[in-house]
Design brief:
The longest helix is centred in the first third of the chain and has 24 residues, at 3-26. Helix 1 packs antiparallel against helix 3 (64-72) and helix 4 (106-115) crosses helix 5 (176-194). Strands 5-6-7-9-3-10 form a six-stranded antiparallel β-sheet, with helices on both faces. By secondary structure, it is an alpha+beta fold. The protein has a single domain (3-29, 37-43, 51-224), classed as 2-Layer Sandwich (Cell Division Protein Zipa, Chain: A). It has helices at residues 3-26, 58-62, 64-72, 106-115, 176-194, 208-224; strands at residues 41-43, 51-54, 90-97, 104-105, 119-120, 126-129, 138-144, 160-161, 163-170, 197-199. Residues 31-52 are annotated as: Disordered.
Length: 236
Amino acid sequence: MSDTSWVRIGILAAGLLLIAAIYLFSRPSKPAQGRRRTSEPVRDDSPDSPLLTPAVGEEAAASMQQAELAFAEPGASTELGRRVQEDFDKIVSLYVAARTGQTLRGEDIVVAAEKTGMVFGHMQVFHRLLEGNPEAGPVFSMASILKPGSFDMATISQMETPAIAFFLTLPAPIPALDAWEKMEPIVQRMAELLDAVVLDDSRNALGRQRIAHIRDELRAYDRQHEAPPLTKPPRW
């Protein structure tokens, strides 16, 4: 199999994982009593209760195959933000979701992304790149949870979405924990700018305990992926 085929397979696999995250985010957390016809998030305001995701509805479920094709297509946009190494073994994701009765507007997302230092690029999504070394690939990226995940700048003024997804694909161009320390504050800032809420990968409000757990996981990941020490030549 040619190198190009392997690259396309790697990109397809990344797309499938992101699609799985979109599906999990879109899936109702409890059996519905009836069909919801709005994109209104359902939320329990008690301190310890989880935030349920916006009801994306049938549109997201029906779009999985189209999303797969969109994310698998390597020529969909500029090369800015394309991963140098297509292989990966872990994805860490967060979501910024609209509040009850609201949606996130495309133009507002673009403005907020620019204010937080993200750039529009590969796959027509936003990326955070390394200062002074953008060619190293994205530290993390941001997409819409609605099909196909990308942002069409020609129609951005008409775009609305219940939430956006931030995903850190490892290995990243910097250590995993460092990448998280760059992503988490930007996600929080995006939520402030959009008057939205931050959810973890389980669709619960992101709290200090969960943040500490993610940091522990990424410290362990970095330890497992440390370069082995150089072996000194034997002394004769």
